[in-house]
Amino acid sequence: MVKAVVLGAAGGIGQPLSLLLKISPLVDELGLFDVVNTPGVAADLSHISSVADVEGTVAAKGDFKGEQPETEEAKKKALTGADIVIIPAGVPRKPGMTRDDLFKINAGIVKDLVVAIAKYAPKATIAIISNPVNSTVPIAAEVLKQAGVFNPKKLFGVTTLDVVRAETFVGGIVGEKDPRKLNIPVVGGHSGNTIVPLFSLAKPSVSIPADKLDALVNRVQFGGDEVVKAKDGAGSATLSMAYAGFRFAESLLKAAKGEKGIVENTFVYLPGVEGGDAIAKATGVDYFSVPVELGVNGAEKAFNILADANDYEKKLLDEAIKGLKTNVETGVSFITNPP
Ligand code: NAD
Ligand code: LMR
Q1: Would you say the pTM of this structure is higher than 0.80?
Q2: Ligand 2 centre distance from Cα of residue 7 (Å)
């Protein structure tokens, strides 16, 4: 029996992500929690004739800080027995904002939800979508450390949307009708120039015309802004993110069931994953998105492909590392040295 839980399940990402999990044969039980509307979302999904049982629990009315006993009960009910918890809870960007501008609100939301995971599902695999991912993942790690239940192999920042965008945009340039056939590593973090697509390491190899390279890199790094601008104040990517989040969750679930050879680019705590220490030493950052082999225990192995990047990409990596260091420190100190 596999139980998947979505925290923030009534939101723009949460609803379509919950739909994809509900119709997945890999999920037997689906727990949905949000501060609003979850019973309605759960009732709606429960009429779908797929395997998973669905239950939606909601915070006490108006309890956005999650402080009331009914809210605690709702989190407990949703999380108990969870194998995988996916977190898209939090506010999205509006035009003119950076992901870091979301920190003020989302840092506290992620902290409170991970405190509940540590209590009610301490062994669950956790996948964090809430922005800024470069800081919310370190926040989650510090909360889990303080609770004595941190397993670095089971904590992931979801950066799959960057990979999905890279596949799509490159597919358009090289004329590949099924962009999923392209395997393009995207490493670093998940915001602006901390996102580094490594086109030179694509498999099969791709030939990007020199006059298109800068614009292509920029489009992958700032693809989120394209959607924020087009939505014009109504939020950021939700449907493509639900697809990407489900794709990542599906890989975690398949690997947990014993399927071999599954590799995903994901943001992990490097010193806690085999092969990660060397990457942390080379970059000077403890958190990085790199290709990671997934297995029954979670993150089995991090692949150090950074040294294989070409000179153009190495310059991008240098820039990414600077930004990442600050983002990671901001997340860590939010817990270790609270404001
Ligand atoms: P949204 O506002 O549509 O939905 C967020 C949901 O979170 C809402 O239903 C809200 O009620 C809920 N929520 C707020 N506080 C909560 C709490 N304490 N507990 C439980 N639920 C709570 O936003 P969205 O478009 O779904 O985006 C959600 C987050 O995902 C944003 O931070 C956004 O920046 C991020 N995001 C990340 C990626 C990525 O690639 N990692 C991609 C897209 C969006
Ligand atoms: C994205 O990459 O689309 C998300 O991180 C949302 C955003 O704020 O751009």
Answers
A1: yes
A2: 18
